[in-house]
């Protein structure tokens, strides 16, 4: 019988679960609320229920699964299956998520950071299919990062590597929530785009605007919004050039809502990256859009389970 | 018979060669000028002669050596043994250094970037002995970097990884020779210390001062020089925090002349790193001084040769 596994993407709001075979073919799925605001126990119960629902959807028994994989937002100690710290799940500190899920599902469970599994998913079946080294950069409210080196997740010594959103691109710049100043995510996260928009004079967009408002206005031809996206793309390119000079990856994959603006941000970002990066790594690195925006996390979690020796 | 090898550190000015056994015990050595200003052929002849001298010093035959290792300044294509680009050796482009040396010495030769072999040397026998992940940061005129992940050099997809000196910590900052703006090495390289000194008013140090002048004045109690080192240390800490958040290494090893200032720069640099880095990676990363400033490159090159399957 071919190997089948379950990959789970556990976010602050939703649980996204896929049953896949060893080639990544989706055999079943489930989508549930995580209810992080209720309690820790509720979240874990919901994850276990989602795994069972997805197995039912695929017409398989949990007993046929060798191992399950979970990607969770936060700092994860992969070896012990523990979520050390999770800003999106209030009060989660040193949660033994792997052990708790394994007990409920009577199967081995591997746990990993959500950006890391998303990177693994893109590298397995998405934009990074032909690459052994890539960095996934998720542009959202914050900026997440997942680093794949020689085909494997680079976790760092404490499971905290790849926090590219929290590297300073302006040491005396904007104060970040993390305590640092001038973090990349202050400029190239959603708030950076809104700030770039506010810097444009005479805009029709006023009040509490979102990154999406700016992008939609730009699509409709708004000159200020177009200028804001250009400015935003340049600052995105600054951080990408740093990633390129530090990691020399084959590929940077950009994910997150703002990538829907397409060439309006990719063009200035790529140009600025090439302008700033050293010749060899700059020339050899491509910057592309994620191919699996919805499923990358669950697929990467499944991949991790398949690779696991448990 | 135990495995013996030769490690060579090839710099723009000097060639430093060591004969070592499989434990890194030094059995012989040679130190020669590289004469990079004469010609490419002269440099390669000098490296070959240095290897022969060191073998003679150790009382061994070249035929007893399984493989030699060379660390060379520049971008190195390790797989092909080619120096793609080397700013310190004018006119070197795509130099097949491995093949040329192998021909002259009739032994296999592996070639690697100099910062990378220095990192490997520190990780083998120096400050990183007990660590599987470390980043070596060499503070000189420029800033070099070597990244060891899971005990191995991270080379990147084109052999250009680890250029931590050329990541921007101020996107609208000082123009760098590399084309980028606000590079870490503009602030934490030797010129950064001189600039910090110039910012102090009323200094006795005037005219064409060097980083060494500042450090010596500080040791003699000069208040402006002490303030300059403090300011420099803080900017060093900014870049270290970025490295910590991106790689989450166990250890950062600082090398280069300016590290002789000891706690005058280590103290502000560590404090600023901890202040800016995320909690988990910041807490778990130590920042220490290199233990093998002279020999790290040659030892690392020897280690690479020992690990090589040639």
What does this structure look like?
Two copies of one chain form a homodimer. The first copy, chain A, has 310 residues and is an alpha/beta fold. Chain A folds into two domains: 4-119 and 295-307, Nucleotidyltransferase, domain 5 (2-Layer Sandwich); 130-289, Nucleotidyltransferase, domain 5 (2-Layer Sandwich), CATH 3.30.420.40. The first copy, chain A, has helices spanning 40-58, 97-105, 114-125, 184-188, 190-199, 211-219, 223-247, 263-276, 279-284, 296-307; strands at 4-10, 14-21, 26-33, 68-72, 75-77, 82-85, 93-95, 109-113, 134-139, 143-149, 152-153, 251-255, 286-289. Chain A has a five-stranded mixed beta sheet. In chain A, strands 11-10-9-12-13 form a five-stranded mixed beta sheet, sandwiched between helices. In chain A, strand 1 (4-10) and strand 2 form a beta hairpin. At the A-B interface, helix 7 and helix 9 of A face helix 7 and helix 9 of B.
Task: Please give the structural blueprint.
Two copies of one chain form a homodimer.
Chain A lengths: L3 E7 L3 E8 L4 E8 L6 H19 L9 E5 L2 E3 L4 E4 L7 E3 L1 H9 L3 E5 H12 L8 E6 L3 E7 L2 E2 L30 H5 L1 H10 L11 H9 L3 H25 L3 E5 L7 H14 L2 H6 L1 E4 L6 H12 L3
Parallel strand pairs in A: 1-4, 4-8, 9-12, 12-13
Antiparallel strand pairs in A: 1-2, 2-3, 5-6, 6-7, 9-10, 10-11
Helix pairs in contact in A: 1-2, 3-10, 5-7, 6-7, 7-8
